[in-house]
Design goal:
Blueprint (H helix, E strand, L loop, with lengths): L1 H5 L38 H7 L12 E2 L6 E3 L2 H10 L18 H16 L1 H6 L4 H22 L12 H17 L14 H11 L10 H11 L54
Antiparallel strand pairs: 1-2
Helix pairs in contact: 4-6, 4-7, 7-8
Length: 282
């Protein structure tokens, strides 16, 4: 999302890995000959190994890889988007929004930290809990934070200020997966996102904003979680639902005001070759 919102397509090429992993983790089987056309590698782990053999912490995405050397630069997903917003400004498109405005950074940082601890990471602590007590504490924390975010967003369109910021991007990544994956697969089932009028409208507002929904592939999301996490879903069966058509229904959040891109402009059309396939869209 950050790459597209900021217009960094020319500076940062995009590779999409297969949502289904084997024992060597993320692979480029969606590309011709099973190789990434830019790096010429079959597995993302090859870029990690070029940086450091036996890279600690495992192979994760997103990852930034240096093309000339083929080495991993960073997989620090929390810092990557902040760097794109602040260190890559010379390469931003004209009209790129300020996703991390200096005057709001303290508030953005606080909101992002809370969202990460209780929501982004909380759903994983719930899903991979190994005992009832651990699960209940994590799941309760998820919904306690979602209730607080509901109160916050009931009277304002975005999380911080009247424009989109990094905080909205961080929350959206979990909300967009919530009903499709986290509600059932990770047992975060006190209620569905679609049953919370405020958060559901907020999530639809973001989804329908250029740069958000046009980067989401629901087919990849569902197949990755349900087929790869065999410890949680040993059959590997991918559920047919939920119905995705609701993501395109009116949200009426514009009535709260706000300027999505601040003094900037929306990103242009999705680049050819980067469109989400039909099976991944509502």
């Amino acid at each position: 999302m950050s790459r597209r919102l900021l217009g960094l397509e020319d500076a940062l090429s995009l590779a999409v890995v297969d949502p289904i992993q084997d024992d060597r983790s993320w692979r480029f089987t969606l590309d011709a000959d099973g190789r990434d056309p830019v790096l010429g590698i079959r597995f993302l782990s090859e870029a990690y190994d070029r940086r450091e053999t036996g890279y600690p912490g495992g192979v994760s995405v997103p990852a930034v890889v240096d093309v000339p050397s083929g080495e991993l630069v960073t997989n620090d997903f929390q810092q990557i988007t902040l760097d794109l917003a602040t260190e890559w400004t010379a390469l931003h498109r004209p009209g790129a929004p300020d996703l991390y405005p200096r005057a709001r950074r303290d508030e953005i940082d606080t909101v992002m930290a809370e969202v990460y601890e209780d929501v982004n990471n909380g759903v994983y602590r719930s899903g991979f809990a190994t005992n009832q007590e651990e699960y209940e504490a994590a799941c309760a924390g998820v919904f306690r934070r979602l209730d607080l975010l509901t109160d916050r967003l009931a009277g304002q369109r975005y999380l911080v200020g009247d424009t989109l910021t990094e905080a909205d991007i961080r929350l959206f990544t979990t909300l967009v997966r919530f009903d499709a994956v986290y509600h059932g697969h990770f047992k975060c089932n006190r209620w569905k996102l679609a049953e919370n009028p405020v958060l559901w409208a907020y999530a639809r507002d973001l989804y329908q904003t250029p740069g958000f929904g046009d980067t989401v592939d629901f087919d990849h999301i569902k197949r990755h979680y349900y087929e790869v996490h065999t410890g949680i879903n040993p059959t590997g069966i991918v559920p047919l639902g939920p119905d995705l058509s609701g993501w395109l229904t009116p949200h009426h959040r514009e009535e709260l005001g706000g300027r999505p891109f601040g003094d900037g402009t929306p990103p242009g059309p999705v680049r050819p070759g980067e469109e989400v396939p039909p099976q991944g869209r509502p």
